[in-house]
Design brief:
The complex is a heterotrimer of chains A (about 160), B (about 425) and C (about 900).
Chain A lengths: L3 H11 L9 H12 L4 H11 L3 H8 L13 E6 L2 H5 L2 H12 L12 E6 L11 E3 L2 E3 L7 H9 L3
Parallel strand pairs in A: 1-2
Antiparallel strand pairs in A: 1-3, 3-4
Helix pairs in contact in A: 1-2, 2-3, 3-4
Chain B lengths: L24 H6 L4 H8 L2 H11 L11 H6 L12 E6 L8 H8 L1 H15 L3 E6 L4 H16 L15 E6 L9 H8 L23 E5 H13 L1 H7 L11 E8 L5 E6 L4 H8 L9 E5 L8 E2 L9 H6 L8 E6 L4 H15 L5 H18 L5 H13 L9 H15 L1 H6 L9
Parallel strand pairs in B: 1-2, 1-4, 2-3, 5-9
Antiparallel strand pairs in B: 5-6, 7-8, 7-9
Helix pairs in contact in B: 2-6, 2-9, 3-6, 3-10, 5-6, 5-7, 6-9, 9-10, 13-14, 13-16, 14-15, 15-16
Chain C lengths: L1 E5 L2 E5 L5 H7 L23 E5 L8 E4 L10 E3 L3 H16 L15 H9 L22 E3 L9 H9 L6 E3 L6 E3 L13 H5 L5 E3 H5 L8 E2 L2 E2 L8 E7 L2 E7 L12 H5 L14 E3 L6 E3 L2 H14 L2 E4 L6 H11 L4 E2 L3 H16 L3 E2 L2 H6 L2 E5 L3 H4 L1 H10 L2 H9 L7 H8 L6 E5 L11 E4 L2 H15 L11 H16 L3 E6 L5 H16 L5 E5 L5 H7 L4 H9 L5 E5 L9 H8 L4 E6 L11 E4 L8 E4 L4 E5 L13 H11 L8 H10 L23 E2 L30 E2 L46 E2 L23 E4 L13 H5 L5 E4 L1 H7 L6 E6 L2 E9 L8 E4 L15 E5 L2
Parallel strand pairs in C: 1-5, 16-17, 16-24, 18-23, 19-20, 19-22, 20-21, 22-23, 24-25, 25-26, 29-30, 32-36, 33-35
Antiparallel strand pairs in C: 1-2, 3-4, 3-5, 6-9, 7-8, 10-12, 11-12, 12-13, 14-15, 14-26, 27-28, 28-31, 33-36, 34-35, 34-37
Helix pairs in contact in C: 8-22, 9-22, 9-23, 10-18, 10-19, 14-15, 16-17, 16-18
The chains are: A alpha+beta (about 160), B alpha/beta (about 425), C alpha/beta (about 900).
The complex binds flavin mononucleotide, iron/sulfur cluster (SF4) and FE2/S2 (inorganic) cluster.
Amino acid sequence: MLSADEIREIDAELAHYEQAQAATIEALKIVQKHRGWVSDEAVADIAEKLGTSPATVDAVATFYNLIYRKPVGRHVIHVCDSVSCWIMGQPRLTELLRTQLGIDYGQTTADGRFTLLPICCLGTCDRAPALMIDKDTHRDLESVDAERLGVILERYP
Amino acid sequence: MTARQSPPQRPLTARIRPEHEPFGLADYERHGGFQGLRAALKMGPQDVTGLVKSAGLRGRGGAGFPTGVKWGLVPMGPDAPKQKYIVANGDEMEPGTFKDRLLLEGDPLQFIEGMIIGGYAIGASIGYVFLRAEYVLAAERLKAAIAECHARKLLGRNILGSGFDFDLYLHTSAGRYICGEETALLNSLEGKRAVPRSKPPFPATAGLFGKPTVVNNIETLCNVPHIVHYGADWYAELSSGTTGSKDGGTKLYGASGKVKHPGCWELPMGTTVREIVDDHAGGMREGLKLRGFLPGGASTDFLTAEHLDVPMDYEHIAQAGSRMGTGLLIVLDDRTPLMAMLRNLETFFARESCGWCTPCRDGLPWTERILADFEAGRARASDIELLRQQTRLLGPGRTFCPHAPGAMEPLQSALKYFPDDFSAAVGRDGAGG
Amino acid sequence: MARIWIDGREYEVDPRRNLLEVALEQGIDLPYFCWHPAMGSVGACRQCAVTQFRDENDTQGRVVMACMTPCADNSRFAVEHADAVEMREAVIELLMTNHPHDCPVCEEGGQCHLQDMTVMTGHNYRRYRYTKRTHRNQDLGPFIGHEMNRCIACYRCVRFYREYAGGTDLNVFGAHNHVYFGREADGTLESPFSGNLVEVCPTGVFTDKPYGESYTRKWDLQQAPSVCHHCAVGCNILPGERYGRIKRVENRYHGALNGYFLCDRGRYGYQYVNDEARPREATGRSAPGASEHALSADKAAQGLAAWIDAGRVIGIGSPRASLEANYALRELLGASNFYRGTREDAALDTLALSILAAGPARIASVRDIEQADAVLVLGEDLLQTSARIALAVRQSVRQRGFALADAAHVPRWQDHSVRLMAQTQNSPLYVLSAAPTGLDELARRCHRGRPEDLAQLAQAIVHQLDHAQPRAPGIDDDTLHLAHEIAEVLVAAERPLIIGGSSTGSAALLQAAANICIALHRRQRSPSIALLPAECNSYGSALLGGDDLDAALARIEAGEVDTLVVLENNLYRRLPAPRLDAALTRIQHLVVIDALATPLGAHAHLQLPAAAFAEADGTLVNFEGRAQRYFQVFVPQDAQRPASWRWLQRTAAVLGRDLGNTLDELTAACAASDPALAGIVAAAPGHDFRIAGQRIPRQPHRYSGRTAMNAARDIHEPQPPQDVDSPLAFSMEGARVGLPPAEIPIFWAPRWNSGQSLSKFQDEINGPLRGGDPGVRLIEPGQGGAYFDRPPRSEVRPLQTVWLYELFGSEELSARGAAIAERMPQPYVVLHPDTAAELGLADGDRHQWAAEGQQWEAQLRVDPGLPVGIAGIPRGMPGMPTLGVGAVIGVAGAGA
Ligand SMILES: Cc1cc2nc3c(=O)[nH]c(=O)nc-3n(C[C@H](O)[C@H](O)[C@H](O)COP(=O)(O)O)c2cc1C
Ligand code: SF4
Ligand code: FES
């Protein structure tokens, strides 16, 4: 079941488009904002809300990489692995995260705190390498070491 | 002070103060804001389009299509469909590109003004900003600016008493580079999978929800208020004195990679690569040499140190064998392994294929894997020919949209300029191939 | 016309077509995947690459996709240009990078479009040396198997399922090379057209599940052209047999009827043929309930002959039996002793035929329905009764989009562009029905009511069209507005179409359809009409005539009948059981000739097992009055199941009467019996038709094992059965080219092993089969008859029933198959929520219901789409009683 808040927010988006299906992506993001990820049940609920079928919604949900169709940790770390960040040392950054968190891309730490994912160019190539944790972009990580990384991660309990 | 004494030389960034909040409406107007809109609303819509056409503004999203011409394709007049749309392309996922973010974060009102003028010119009453999800700050500032405009009746019904209605909505994406392709973007805005559409019909006749639609890049739209305010001649002259560029105006150029000061700068159209790299980016880092560069994002052909004096504009870069693209350089130094860089690029493109057409969907992952063998030094001699073949088979016209051809540009140019890197990566056991 | 050049040869072509279509029509083997003749082009697979040249001096050219390229005047193309050849080979190579190469265990092997194209492009050396991506498969229900690893992502499945057929539970998921085609979770594919995925998919991802469960390669199937027996549309089918079992049914293209697609009832309805419990030999019984004893065919015929000879005998024919069988019974017993459907059904079919014959409306084919630009559906739930028609109506609403595309110079085959331009704009469709239907979502407006009420609305439309016609007093303003709107739309349309039928049991609705057509005609319009009867040969049976069942029962009840002969007709589906039971006690001999074991057969004194459709030949008349011949696919082994008409010929012979010995003789006699039937002889060539002296083989060129397949019984190679009824042979030998369209037993062409070889059998893609589409239209509409009187008004009686239908369940033969049975709902009764509340009944509860002396248990379904006060009951469903039109039901108590 969609919550009252979710329904209100989806309704607000619906008002912006001439067709209900256009709110699909926003609806998915709204649900994800509230719940962290989008479950099968949520897909069905959104479909009902928008007057379409679960398969129609899920085709959209599974296309976009920022919709999580599996549970994620409390915080999602997106490491930019596109070319500028890569030149500036992204592989080292990823390696550091891997050892520090003990997880690989696509995995979640045992305590459910972090999920690690790669992401396309974050549009901050002048301050590469960069990563995003939840909504925060962290830049200039070329010479980051375990300690500085630890300080950053600490902000995400 | 409503208009400045002398028109700005760097109009797009004139009001941007790095590390500061953007101007609010009052400050924006004090610094010449909404003069363009006011002027436009006094003109006929088609005259606005004509002005933009004569200014020679070309799209800054990568393809460089003349903006005025694009607007001119939209049906106008009493028989035209009632509902039309203007859509701003703020997807900006081209690796190495970060100009639209700076424009939105630094001066959202300038963009909004351009959008309203664009809407007015084509008779659209609704505009959408398609913004990539990761641009959180840009979204926040844009939302605040939209709200302020609404409150001051610069958006909504009867803007500035002109009788023109215009609403602007922000749509944040859910990821996927292909959303930047304008027809895929429209599908995405409609809540569908971001698969490109076939043309015709072009968006100007049947775009969003089948209605006439113009899609413009953020930077493109940011130019518009200034063109309307200061005129086409002023615009053309902005770039003069540089290198004889045919294109008017300024461009947001930038550089990333191992230059001393990566960044983004508004410079006259046609500024040479050398000036951008040496003067603005501070040259290469100590001990590194420039080996090549992608002039306008990951989907443009490599150019080399030989091309440093090429002026960065659409024609000159094309003559040199590449594309202006987004105009933000990705610099390859002499220590970064080219094979690995290519592999990185193709990983990106393979992952971002929408999955619609065969050459792209299945050809890019293959290319990526071959390059991984080159990166690891275990490629076979025959793989070089195989890569050459891929650049042909995934090239323009072979695929449904320009995504895969874009992916082939860095590869085909690398094969052209740096063949030895490939031969060197052929493994011992690979000789038989 | 446009002049174009392909590989240096000049062609005159229609500039509105695309190059791929044109090339295929010219016999050029150009590979493709994502294009489909009925679904147009989307440019996804990039397989159909050719080189296009700017002018005659351009030698370089550029590679384009043939399916996306119009044949503009003076364009120059090369299929054999090096760049294009390389491109086509490369696309296959890419598609094969992830393909599992599991052809030996794949159901598609040997009839696989992907195999064909792989060979055609010459790709035979694998350069890709990395791992393949793999997928998990889904359980998609009883009809469709799923093997995703074989997928080449041509997107045809989702385009057919969603865009063409309107299904919503199949889709493409994921992106890049992870795209996945399936459901959001395991579960039965809900679309009534899901079976077409098997043919639409160019490889073995979507497979025919029942076929896969007892699989035979295409080249080992014995096939004959046949006609679907499961509704009145008469779709053409190709059943395939091996080891005495029908293994599958495939679509047999018919340009005016089914085109490329069947409904799932038609595709999977055959399973009853394989039922082990079907009667195998003639049996006699001394009295109802007594044990049966086997009879030789001669004994059986002699027995029947003796009873006939004794007199006081009547016969009841059947709308699911062939014309020939019905005719033979009528001839044997005399026209005055020959009866057919229930009073309502017989009257409705006769009425419908008279309407069609009177004109002025043209009788719409399925293709015509697709092209109608305004459609009014009067009372029918097409998706449940004649699903293929519903699929055609679904296409008709695209006319609006085509018009928009034409105006914008977007070619109609640019499928996604046309859909983009159309958006949700449909050309007008109005659905008037008793309960919600599957087409409602496409309709401009729907209206619900009892058939009587719908007829009033129709009368209001007539009045709007022709003010000289009476109003329909007493209908409310809303309905009047709707009538007004529909009238305006129909008059404004270029190709208006009225669809009606007999499923409601209402003559008034049929008359209303006729009146609307007449009124439109008077307004200088030329409407077309489709009137759908209930069964595969309803119109054939009506053309033959005969009084109705009430009259037959009256004679029985009056004690005038000693022997009742029932032909392929389970009377318990037609008459309320108490009345039938009572009648059966009044006769001496009940003779039942049927392919099925039915409750009626259990009472028979003499039961004569008859061939099922695949075991016999015959002629059916479909909803457009088209006589179509179906042919025997195989000769059953270990069973004595001749065509039902053969029992009658044999009996006639005993009596010294001549009903002929072959089908042809019977058909000819039947044709001669009535001018209206004269055309049926031409439905297909006669049995003596030969091509260069040769018959047409039912077995493919590579049929294997015929010397050994019977070895378990007899190690000698058996003599192939002789066919005296058709020019087809039960063998591999014979003529394979130049076949008359009605006699094509398989679609196969050099280099084209899959069903895509069809284009080799057409002159024009989507056009008729070469030589003309099979069948003969028997009815030539006249200039238009007189208006029927205004329909009578009637008050709603509480819990008066309306008939509802189930695609899976309402038809007798198909309902007996295991796969279809899995898709059948349990017995139910539908009420409006207010009606249910008034009765104190809750949705989902099981109750005992009662009507016309019968009781049954069924679940209550509550549906606000049904008018208040009436009860919807699914007709013909197992577990449901047989009730008369508009019967009133009551609740007898709580269910078990
Ligand atoms: C794969 C692909 C990605 C693209 N991404 C973007 C993008 O992120 N932003 C953008 O403005 N244009 C992008 N484009 C170009 C757009 O299709 C389109 O040309 C542009 O938005 C038009 O605006 P303009 O005329 O103002 O440049 C992309 C094109 C392709 C083929
Ligand atoms: S080239 Fe084809 S698969 Fe690739 S993004 Fe474009 S349409 Fe999609
Ligand atoms: S058939 Fe032409 S691109 Fe697929």
